[in-house]
């Protein structure tokens, strides 16, 4: 016989109200009796109201039943001293039972946790406590402030659509330590002069005719840890060979400087100061030089490729770079 059918036979004579607090119960127990009180909750520590709690004396001489309140509290007062079995029952879920020894003139406590279907979702703090600890370097970066009056150019709308700037807004994957960057640029060109070797002459950005050319494949990103920053970006594709060939700034000395960095477009590191004006950056390494508002990376430009004159000026520089923002919109 299950708990529900057995209790329904006895409800007329054994149902008692037990929603008293523990101190009151302890004070009111009869000289030869004790009491028991407790909470019925689910796995997320939320109260389970109207759970049927059944108390059976081990020798079968007595049985009591009550319902938990809206706060999950149940109580039995004036239980004869002895060994009791306490069961919490809710239709459709497994019962929870415990054996308790009731002493005369004393109150005991027994809580129950039921596995409830569709239990409320745990609070974020409780859920976070159950999740494995994620290293700080792999955690998502903190969200930017709603109104940013410190970060340079943060209050300029749609700056990502300016010529020479990437149109990306939020990276797919980002952490407090590293923001990856992947660039893939391919196109198809046709020279109606139909060069026999498919070589296009007179352009510093377009190199092959009648082919789908892989212009640029770059892998890398930005490292950032507190105020330390670094950037690395590799360079593969036609850009890796043709642009260093056209950049006369590297053609000095007798060493092959033209090919020294042909597979590396950016590699620099430095430090950022927040409390100097609106920001001060000091970095050293390999940088991309901007010509006006044109970017070295064609994808960022409205016209795709910069002018022929601009492309024949140096695109790269090695050394120390200092950037100072006296205001949020002025960069020196």
How would you describe what is shown here?
This protein is mainly beta and 332 residues long. It is built from 5 helices and 14 strands. The chain folds into 2 domains: 3-114, Aromatic compound dioxygenase (Protocatechuate 3,4-Dioxygenase, subunit A), CATH 2.60.130; 136-324, no CATH class. Helix content is 11%, strand content 34%. The strands form 3 sheets. Strands 9-10-11-12-13-14 form a 6-stranded antiparallel β-sheet, with no helix packed on it. Strands 1, 4, 7 and 8 form a 4-stranded mixed β-sheet that branches. Strand 12 and strand 13 form a beta hairpin. It is elongated and about 105 Å long. 20% of the residues are buried.
Order of helices and strands: HHEEEEEEEEHEEEHEEHE
Radius of gyration: 37 Å
Query: What is the CA–CA distance across the termini?
Result: 85 Å
- Largest sheet geometry: 6 strands, antiparallel
**Count of discrete domains:** 2
Number of helices: 5
In short:
Strand 2 (52-57) and strand 3 form a beta hairpin. The radius of gyration is 37 Å and the shape is elongated. It contains 5 helices and 14 strands.
Write the layout of secondary structure elements.
Layout: H1 3-14, H2 22-28, E1 33-42, E2 52-57, E3 63-67, E4 73-80, E5 82-89, E6 96-102, E7 107-109, E8 112-114, H3 124-130, E9 178-189, E10 211-225, E11 228-234, H4 239-246, E12 264-273, E13 280-288, H5 308-311, E14 316-324
Features:
2 domains, 5 helices, four-stranded mixed β-sheet, 332 residues, mainly beta, disordered N terminus
């Amino acid at each position: 016989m299950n708990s529900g059918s057995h209790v329904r036979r006895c409800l007329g004579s054994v149902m008692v109200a037990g929603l008293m607090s523990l101190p009151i119960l302890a004070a009111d127990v009869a000289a030869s009796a004790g009491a028991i009180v407790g909470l019925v909750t689910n796995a997320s520590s939320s109260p389970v109201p109207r759970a049927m709690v059944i108390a059976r004396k081990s020798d079968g001489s007595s049985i009591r039943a009550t319902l938990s309140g809206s706060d999950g509290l149940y109580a039995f007062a004036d239980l004869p001293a002895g060994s009791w079995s306490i069961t919490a029952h809710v239709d459709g879920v497994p019962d929870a039972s415990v054996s308790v020894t009731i002493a005369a003139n004393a109150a005991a406590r027994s809580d129950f946790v039921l596995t409830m279907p569709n239990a409320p979702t745990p609070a974020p703090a409780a859920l976070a406590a159950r999740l494995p600890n994620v290293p700080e370097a792999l955690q998502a970066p903190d969200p930017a402030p709603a109104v940013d009056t410190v970060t340079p150019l943060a209050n300029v709308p749609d700056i990502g659509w300016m010529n020479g700037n990437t149109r990306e807004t939020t990276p797919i994957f980002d952490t407090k330590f590293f923001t990856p960057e992947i660039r893939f640029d391919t196109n198809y060109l046709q020279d109606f002069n139909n060069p026999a070797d498919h070589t296009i002459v007179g352009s510093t950005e377009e190199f092959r005719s009648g082919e789908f050319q892989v212009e640029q494949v770059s892998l890398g990103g930005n490292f950032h840890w507190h105020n330390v920053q670094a950037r690395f970006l590799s360079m593969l594709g036609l850009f890796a060979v043709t642009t260093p060939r056209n950049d006369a700034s590297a053609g000095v000395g007798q060493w092959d400087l033209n090919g020294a960095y042909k597979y590396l477009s950016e590699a620099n590191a430095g430090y950022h100061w927040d409390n100097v004006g609106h920001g001060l950056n000091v970095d050293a390494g390999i940088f991309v030089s901007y010509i006006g508002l044109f970017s070295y990376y064609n994808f960022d430009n409205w016209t795709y490729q910069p002018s022929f004159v601009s492309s024949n000026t140096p695109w790269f520089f090695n050394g120390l770079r200092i950037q100072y923002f006296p205001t949020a919109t002025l960069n020196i």
